[in-house]
Fold this protein.
Amino acid sequence: MLGEILATLNIGEKVWKFIGAIRKTKPTQSETMSSRFIRLFECHGVHRNQIPRFFGHGLTVKDVQDDQSLLGKLDEPLLEAACVRFGVRREWLDGAEPHVFTCHDFYKDPGGVLPFLNRLREANPEAKVDGILIAPEGEEGEALVLLSEFIGWIGDKAIYRYHLCNNWLFDYWKSRAYLTAFVAICWKNGVHIRGTYLPEKEIERVACGDALICTEDGDPGIRGTRLWYPEDMALRPDVFLSGVDPEQDQFGIKSALMLWLDLEQQGYMDAGLAMYSKEPIRSLFETKLAEYSPE
């Protein structure tokens, strides 16, 4: 199995850190800009006393001890820099809008994936980016790709910012094919995507960008999650089709296979895995399509 072959990549631990990060933090009604600023850092694993060391911008430990002292330091350059550091929207930090993150949508847009990854690399050349595909249990409903980008250290603890790639209806044939292309393009370009299953409600908590992604331990609703290997969707027809077309009228299955073949012909299904040759993989999907389209 491909997952066993690639186990030496040793990114399983990182996957579980992602899962622990899926948590919605609820602000209090009296939350101020200062307290929201502190919550932004603490949710990413930076204690308030560590903010000056990690973030700089003229802040001192004394400045972050209470909201009133910090408020006097929150000028425009500092607020903008905090938003850039963690990839959050300024409107959220201002308290004006609930959307924390700007979500990225690559449904029907596989050509936009590589430019997006290149922009991340250009802005942060030394950073490692990887991710997790969170699919709904039962394989019906919304899926989410959560990318993690390294942005620095606090002691021996790595700090990350997150990028949400949403609008993936997991059981819809067209969405499944474009999602597979997204995963393949990421793998080919060194962004390794692992997978897990969660209840759809857990995914919905963060998929729209309304929740901070925290590095603390996850709540009980995400325990017992099993791992899977999304790159197999670009390699194995059975994994690609799993959960597609639940009504079993075969239209979705055939359409998914035809779109997979079309996207493969355009070069979007090449995951860059040297142990597999391109033509045999395509022939597997052609053979599977022939099973549903007898002459």
Remarks:
- Residues 33-93 form one domain.
- Confidence is low (pLDDT under 50) at residues 1-10, 217-224.
- Strands lie at 104-105, 129-136, 142-154, 157-169, 193-198, 227-228.
- The CA atoms of residues 1 and 7 lie 10 Å apart.
